[in-house]
């Protein structure tokens, strides 16, 4: 093949695209990965870093449980500590109704084989003693095998592994459009080059809709952005990933607290990743009421990521490694060993997935 041709052209170098490229090269395929910027510096590198199984759509949970097996071996496979630790994931119940909802979800998850627990208010406060005693708390749902990883490290480490296996990675190479011939994609066009291949894989996250539009497909993606705030490093006070209906926070291995909340999440019509002053003010108002210790902390920086309200809906960080395995199987064997029938594109036309379900499943 020529320098701009390969068996597979992967477009997008986040955790999903890099994982797919890695598995395809391992299967013997030649791969070119085209990334508009640098590997792992868009949604994957701006995620919350949660690697959780609990509280997922029933169709997603088996994928997440399979992904955990890959995460557990990732340090050795990539020869890199990506910060993956199983410190658990805890979801607060701020009302009796929410706790009952968690109980029902836990029963379903246990029937599939996931180890989850319903905690009393006392057990919840024991695990998270930093939580304000002034907020209503009726218990929590806890998955001890969930964890976190460093989103700044993971996709880049997978990208390096893909390159070692033979993937040709071309950064700063945005794809402008796709070309079809007789209902089959035959080329990807950049500003300077045209790339040809047998298979093209669109892993461009929030940009996927625009790229699909170039071949007459409207993929229903809605863009939202969420601002994440990073405090100064402090001694360990938070081990699990802490989640609720309207905020989340975790402590990185380096000691910094990463915080985000529903008030900082807004729909947008473009890809603006700036953080406005209003977001800082909002966090400063609500965070001390949840975690009183936060009054002592300085916020060092903030960044904005893009939450995909369709596709992976912000779930791609955990699922990325197993998606690499699934797509590789689809390319090389024609089908996946895991059941992914509920994610078929035709479901939108069949009316089996409403717009709201497509937007948010967790």
Task: Write structural notes for this entry.
The chain is an alpha+beta fold and 362 residues long. It folds into two domains: 5-67 and 153-220 and 314-359, FAD/NAD(P)-binding domain, CATH 3.50.50; 86-148 and 222-308, 2-Layer Sandwich (D-Amino Acid Oxidase, Chain A, domain 2), CATH 3.30.9. The protein is built from eleven helices and 17 strands. The chain has helices spanning 15-26, 61-72, 74-78, 96-112, 121-127, 154-165, 208-213, 277-290, 316-333, 347-350, 355-359; strands at 5-11, 31-34, 50-51, 89-92, 117-119, 140-143, 147-148, 168-170, 175-180, 185-190, 194-202, 223-231, 241-243, 247-251, 257-261, 265-267, 299-308. Strands 4, 5, 6, 12, 13, 14, 15, 16 and 17 form a nine-stranded mixed β-sheet that branches. β9 and β10 (185-190) form a beta hairpin. α1 (15-26) runs parallel beside α9 and α2 (61-72) crosses α9 (316-333). The longest helix has 18 residues, at 316-333. It is globular. The termini are far apart. Mean pLDDT is 87; it is low at 353-362.
In short:
By secondary structure, the chain is an alpha+beta fold. It contains eleven helices and 17 strands. It is globular, with a radius of gyration of 21 Å.
Descriptors:
362 residues; alpha+beta; FAD/NAD(P)-binding domain; D-Amino Acid Oxidase, Chain A, domain 2; 2 domains; nine-stranded mixed sheet; six-stranded mixed sheet; 17 strands; 31% helix; disordered C terminus
Q: For this structure, what is the CATH class of the largest domain? A: Alpha Beta
Major β-sheet annotation: 9 strands, mixed
Number of strands: 17
Radius of gyration: 21 Å
Structural class determined from secondary elements: alpha+beta
Bin the strand percentage: 15-25%
CATH architecture descriptor of the largest domain: 3-Layer(bba) Sandwich
Q: Overall 3D geometry?
A: globular
Order of helices and strands: EHEEHHEHEHEEHEEEEHEEEEEHEHHH
Whole-number total of structural domains:
2
Mean pLDDT: 87
Report the helical percentage: 25-40%
- In the predicted model, the low-confidence regions spanning at least 5 consecutive residues are 353-362
Question: Please, what is the CATH homologous superfamily of the largest domain?
Answer: FAD/NAD(P)-binding domain
Question: Helical element count?
Answer: 11
């Amino acid at each position: 093949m020529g320098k701009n041709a390969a068996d597979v052209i992967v477009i997008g170098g986040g955790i999903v695209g890099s994982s797919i490229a890695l598995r395809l090269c391992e299967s013997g395929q030649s791969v070119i990965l085209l990334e508009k910027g640098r590997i792992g510096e868009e949604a994957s590198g701006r995620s919350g870093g949660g690697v959780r199984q609990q509280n997922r759509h029933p169709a997603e949970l088996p994928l997440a449980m399979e992904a955990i097996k890959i995460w557990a071996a990732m340090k050795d496979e990539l020869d890199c500590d990506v910060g993956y630790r199983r410190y658990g994931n805890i979801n607060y119940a701020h009302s009796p109704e929410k706790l009952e909802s968690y109980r029902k979800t836990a029963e379903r998850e246990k029937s599939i084989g996931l180890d989850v627990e319903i905690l009393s208010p006392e057990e919840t406060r024991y695990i998270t003693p930093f939580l304000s005693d002034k907020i209503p708390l009726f218990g929590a749902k806890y998955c001890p095998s969930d964890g976190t990883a460093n989103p700044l490290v993971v996709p880049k480490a997978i990208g390096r592994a893909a390159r070692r296996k033979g993937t040709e990675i071309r950064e700063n190479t945005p794809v402008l459009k796709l070309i079809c011939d007789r209902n089959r994609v035959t080329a990807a066009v950049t500003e300077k080059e045209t790339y040809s291949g047998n298979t093209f894989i669109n892993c461009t996250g929030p940009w996927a809709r625009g790229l699909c539009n170039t071949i007459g497909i409207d993929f229903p993606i809605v863009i939202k952005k969420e601002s994440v705030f990073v405090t100064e490093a402090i001694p360990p006070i938070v081990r699990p990933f802490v989640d609720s209906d309207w905020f989340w926070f975790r402590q990185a291995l380096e000691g910094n607290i990463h915080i985000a909340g529903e008030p900082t999440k807004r729909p947008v019509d473009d890809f603006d990743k700036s953080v406005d002053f209003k977001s800082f003010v909002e966090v400063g108002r609500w965070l001390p009421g949840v975690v009183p210790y936060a009054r002592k902390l300085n916020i060092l920086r903030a960044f904005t990521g893009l939450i995909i309200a369709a596709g992976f809906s912000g779930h791609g960080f955990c699922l990325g490694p197993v998606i690499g395995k699934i797509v590789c199987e689809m390319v090389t064997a024609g089908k996946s060993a895991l059941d992914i029938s509920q994610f078929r594109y035709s479901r939108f036309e069949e009316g089996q997935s409403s717009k709201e379900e497509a937007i948010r499943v967790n």
